[in-house]
Amino acid sequence: METIQVVLDEKLLKAADKAAKREKVNRSALIRQALEEHLKRLTIRDKEDRDRRGYLAKPHRKDESAAWEDAAVWPE
Fold this sequence. Notes:
Order of helices and strands: HH
Low-confidence stretches: none
């Protein structure tokens, strides 16, 4: 692992320390977990944006999923 320096304002630092204590981890572990979760959300957002652009470039046709309609009906 690398050691880095991060500048936080006092309010954020106190909130981080409180959260770390509540989660029973140290400050570094809390920041690592938060950063990992944030990076995952960014990746998901990028994939969703890519998919959205793709569907806008080639919109869904109404007849495109007609063959699947019977499979989507709940049996009685």
